[in-house]
Amino acid sequence: RKEVEQDPGPFNVPEGATVAFNCTYSNSASQSFFWYRQDCRKEPKLLMSVYSSGNEDGRFTAQLNRASQYISLLIRDSKLSDSATYLCVVSSSGTYKYIFGTGTRLKVLA
Amino acid sequence: EADIYQTPRYLVIGTGKKITLECSQTMGHDKMYWYQQDPGMELHLIHYSYGVNSTEKGDLSSESTVSRIRTEHFPLTLESARPSHTSQYLCASSLQGTDTQYFGPGTRLTVL
Q1: Using CA atoms, how far apart are residues A106 and A13, in angstroms rounded to an integer?
Q2: What does DSSP say about strands A104-109 and A98-100: parallel, antiparallel, or unpaired?
Q3: What confidence score (pLDDT) does residue A93 get?
Q4: Which residues, including other chains, have CB under 8 Å from residue A76's CB and lie 6 or more apart?
């Protein structure tokens, strides 16, 4: 079993739709959680960190559920420009180790 | 935008050649990393550094080596390239005390 698991998709959604991705992690000692966005053949870019209390940045909302060991990303009012692969990243505090999921691919359709 | 740079962006080279992939950052970050990513797959850590003269191997077995003589510079060297080294190589950095990584644009390596 992988340490970080994501549904690879693709999720094909119409413009304006709301879409949600989940990511599960196996290490209960994990302390830091992130969502990165990666466009085709480009580098990952930080979308948002995920805090225990949950956090929101515009149309994007991230949640952490420690009891069930998953994080989620909600995108409201999807835009064509949201089409990308969304990477879940988990880290244990004070270590070098960032574990990346394989990513969930999102396609927003006109 | 993160100030982290990688050269070359694309490299096609023959088997057996020695190559060095360059990575530089101007943010004063202590920690630097090298990842390997194949298409549609997750990133795998191959080397990391906590600071000058500190380098460690990551989880992915690699025939590459790294050095960290200056804070801003973290080059990766393959002594003898093989077709199995064909991949995208991503450099990243982060500031001590924070967990956020910033990535360079990557080097896409093809070994024939």
Answers
A1: 8
A2: unpaired
A3: 66
A4: A18, A59, A60, A61
Does A40 contact chain B (CB < 8 Å)?
Answer: no
Whole-angstrom Cα distance, residue A101 to residue A25? 9
Residue A10 Cα, gap to closest chain B Cα (Å): 12
- Interface check for B21 against chain A (CB to CB < 8 A): the answer is no
Residues in chain B: 112
Instruction: Give chain A positions within 8 Å (CB) of B56.
Output: 96
Q: How far apart, in whole angstroms, are the C-alpha atoms of residue A33 and residue B100? A: 9
Measured between CB atoms, does B60 come within 8 Å of chain A? no
Q: Considering only CA atoms, which of A33, A6, A43, A107 is closest in space to residue B89?
A: A43
pLDDT tens sequence across A74-109:
999 999 999 999 999 998 766 677 899 999 999 999
| Cβ neighbours for B13, distance < 8 A, ≥ 6 positions apart | B19, B81, B109, B110, B111, B112
What tokens were used for B80?
Answer: 């003898």
Evaluated on CA atoms A25, A49, A54, A59, the torsion sign reads negative
Dihedral in degrees, nearest 10, Cα atoms B32, A92, B97, B36:
10
Q: Considering chain A, what percentage of its residues have pLDDT values greater than 70?
A: 96
Give B2's pLDDT tier (boundaries 50, 70, 90): low
User: Is the Cβ of B40 closer than 8 Å to some Cβ of chain A?
Assistant: yes
pLDDT tens for each residue of A1-44: 788 999 999 999 999 999 999 999 998 888 889 999 999 989 99
